[in-house]
Design goal:
A hairpin with a 5-residue loop joins β9 and β10. With 537 residues, the chain is of the alpha/beta class. α8 packs parallel to α11. Strands 5-10-9-6-7-8 form a 6-stranded mixed beta sheet. Helix content is 49%, strand content 9%. It has a domain of 140 residues. The longest helix has 43 residues.
Length: 537
């Protein structure tokens, strides 16, 4: 009886301890969504947060490998650190680009060469390192300094042979049931390595580390062999069944660059891109998923990444030879995304975009990803717009040319009858059909809309980028964003809303004798055109 009671007491204590442990774990996992909130706040307050996304991936990796205590302890510790802003690096107000470059060079870890905390799992080292190298490359070009690091990238030594690399990729790509439940897995680090197969990658270009031809060939072969023939996607697989666990658009959108260039041409004779039709269809399928609840910042983080990757995957790498039907499906999907971009992310008082809906501060990640989206759909890249949607003769209805003495609102009825029109641009004389962003005199929004014309938007964004004190977000730098917009030559113009700006148009007609009016949809595609000439009689 005594022995039975002892066993029951022992079992009770064990069960109580287990419940306490489970309670601690449950509470720790509940901190993950709050970490995204803290990441948002820290970015807005000007802290260096380039490690954040990869710290989160490190937690997922430890959980997948059964290192539960380490993962739970790391999550709790990181949450405490972000909440107290303890040990975080506040980005200074740089006096010049050289000082900024020196600041980032000093973040390199002398033991590993990585731009990452060496307490994190090894697999997290490459991601933030690659992002900081992009920034340093841009700063080197601006300052005229050589692209030279303080320490060698010795962390690559751990995977510097084809055999080591293949084993490492297998370890990252095959995951268990717990990791499969998380929004992102260690497979993210597979895609981070994919770029090193290309000679134009920063590490290869500046000889920061030497990957042998055999190593690059092994990388390409592994990626080629691990593309899923049923979906066309790459992604994590079950380590038990070997089956693809999800349609991983985020990582597929990056890995594809190892196989095709920005125009969809194959890079390698031995490794042509396969299953393009399946990739296109499944990309549209993933992009059709509705936005998450406004409070789920971790879900928004992933949704925005996936959708942005989907746009670039379709327009850069899969558009070549696409059917008219699929083009139309993609266009409708892009229209939805541009509406969400402006409704949830655009901060009109700052003229730029946040990354998390509900934020009060625009960020580099939010603005950089938004402008990347507009670039991918050809909104401010005329050559790309024609490649995606066709020339003006295919997209724009000619509503006629009219000789008039005085303009009236009724003259614009044909444009108002075009339901797809979001904004209207007024040009002096005849616009350049190869560049509808030039010679714009006024922008008119005939209907209530939150979506800006690109000629209205770009000067606002440039002003924010030029004046922000932010230097680097989770992965986007100010230098990269500035460089991406440097060739976009758009001058600020006056803006009208509601009624037709007849007085302004009358003045334009008086001065220029001819005014061309072109209506644009939300993707900045020209949809209709009218010409008004001042009558002499």
């Amino acid at each position: 009886m005594l022995r039975r009671r002892t066993i029951m007491v022992t079992a009770g204590i064990t069960l109580s301890s287990l419940l306490v442990i489970l309670g601690i774990w449950a509470h720790s996992f509940s901190l993950i969504p709050d970490l995204f909130r803290l990441n948002k706040e820290c970015q807005e307050e000007g802290y260096y947060m380039a490690e954040f996304e990869f710290k989160m991936l490190g937690f997922a990796y430890d959980l997948d490998k059964g290192q539960y205590e380490k993962a739970v302890s790391s999550i709790r510790k990181y949450h405490k650190q972000l909440k107290a802003r303890q040990g975080l690096i506040k980005l200074p107000a740089f006096t010049d680009k050289k000082q900024e470059m020196d600041f980032y060079l000093n973040l390199q870890n002398p033991k590993t060469g990585a731009f990452m905390d060496d307490a994190a799992p090894y697999c997290t080292y490459e991601g933030p390192t690659g992002n900081v190298l992009l920034l340093l490359d841009a700063l080197a070009k601006e300052t005229g300094q050589p692209m030279q690091l303080k320490y060698p990238l010795t962390f690559f030594d751990a995977i510097n042979t084809p055999e080591k690399l293949t084993a490492y990729l297998d370890d990252l790509a095959n995951i268990g049931w717990l990791a499969a439940k998380l929004p992102e897995s260690s497979f993210h680090m597979v895609r981070d390595l994919a770029g090193y197969s290309r000679d134009d990658d920063i590490v290869n270009k500046y000889h920061l580390y030497t990957f042998s031809p055999e190593w690059k060939q092994a990388l390409l072969k592994w990626l080629y062999d691990n593309q899923d023939p049923q979906t066309g996607f790459w992604g994590p697989r079950s380590r038990f069944s070997g089956k693809l666990l999800k349609l991983d658009l985020h990582n597929t959108g990056s890995i594809v660059k190892a196989f095709v260039d920005n125009n969809g041409n194959d890079r390698h004779v031995l490794f042509p891109l396969r299953y393009k039709d399946k990739m296109f269809a499944n990309t549209l399928l993933v992009m059709a998923e509705p936005p998450p609840d406004i409070s789920d910042l971790d879900e928004w983080h992933g949704w925005t990444l996936r959708t942005g990757k989907g746009v670039s995957l379709l327009t850069r790498y899969l558009w070549k030879g696409v059917s008219r039907e699929n083009k139309e499906k993609a266009r409708k999907s892009f229209e939805t995304f541009v509406r969400v971009r402006f409704e949830k992310y655009y901060l009109s008082d700052q003229g730029a975009f946040c990354y998390y809906p509900g934020s009060l501060q625009a960020t580099l990640d939010g603005t950089g990803s938004a402008m990347g989206f507009f670039e991918n759909i050809g909104a401010f890249v005329p050559e790309k717009q024609r490649r995606l949607w066709g020339g003006v003769e295919e997209t724009c209805v000619d509503l006629g040319s009219f000789s008039i003495k005085t303009l009236t609102e009724k003259d614009f009825d044909p444009i108002m009858a075009q339901g797809a029109i979001n904004s209207v641009r007024f040009y002096s004389g005849s616009p350049d059909s190869m560049n509808f962003m030039a010679k714009v005199q006024n922008i008119w929004y005939p209907r209530n809309t939150q979506m800006l014309d690109i000629v209205d938007l770009v000067p606002r964004v440039k002003n924010w980028v030029n004046t922000t004190t932010q230097s680097m977000g989770n992965w986007t730098s100010r230098e990269e964003t500035e460089a991406d917009l440097a060739d976009v030559k758009i001058e600020p113009v006056s803006v009208s809303k509601g009624d037709v700006p007849l007085e302004k148009l009358a003045e334009l007609l008086r001065v220029h004798k001819t005014v061309t009016v072109i209506g644009f949809d939300v993707l900045q595609i020209p949809r209709c055109k009218m010409v008004f000439r001042l009558s002499d009689s």
